[in-house]
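Predict structure. Chain length: 269.
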Amino acid sequence: MAVMALNSAATGLRALSTRIDVIANNLANSETVAFKRSRMNFEDLMYLTLKEPGTTNSAGEVTPAGTFVGLGVKISNTQIDLEQGSMENTNRPLDVAIEGPGFFRVKIMDSIGDGTGYTRNGNFFLNQEGELVIGSGDGYKIIPTIQIPPGVSSITISRNGIVEYIRPGSIDKQTAGQLKITQFVNPQGLKLLGGSIYVETPASGEPIDSNPGQDGAGTLLQNFLEGSNVDPVKELVTLIKTQRSFELNSQSIQTADQALQTIVNLRRF
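Prediction complete.
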């Protein structure tokens, strides 16, 4: 049975080691715009059944419980925590935060999925053609394309996503386009690519586009950016708990090894 303990503890060490990697990534991105922390979930492995519950003994009595020995643990999944990050005032007109659920749709490389990605990073820039792009990667274009002519005196983005500007010497606002918000039935099923970019998968469901503030989509807040939702204190507490669990699993291996050594030494008596 000590051999089973070795194997169970080994699965625990592997799973906890991966959890440390996830926590380290969360802490490393505590200042990344619109970053969403990941949480690791575990599940137990199969059980060795030594006695079935409800069996009848020689006296005709039914046993109230069985005897099971677990075979360890494995990683169930990593779950994206979509809790809203804090709003950070930048006073920059092209910085936009999403208040509530949803993502911006952006054009990424055609070789990845269907060339469409999704992000909550609203750190927008204008490229050389005046098109609205996000300030990560190579500057992914917003879908649908929004183009602003050069030399405008002011740019405003309303809570419902209407992008307007004023030309020099004019007081009339002109509309450049409409920002859309994309939602998913199961945003936990999105695939993470890095650069705050997610892509659709069969698990996430089909993308649902709507104007900000409609059909449950979040609204937009100009001059703000959504910060990371990583709580460093909470992550450090989880890291300490994981480290202690790792040490206990290591102790289980040492204890099982000592038990096996004792069994081997019995032959010498």
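Summary: The longest strand covers residues 73-80.
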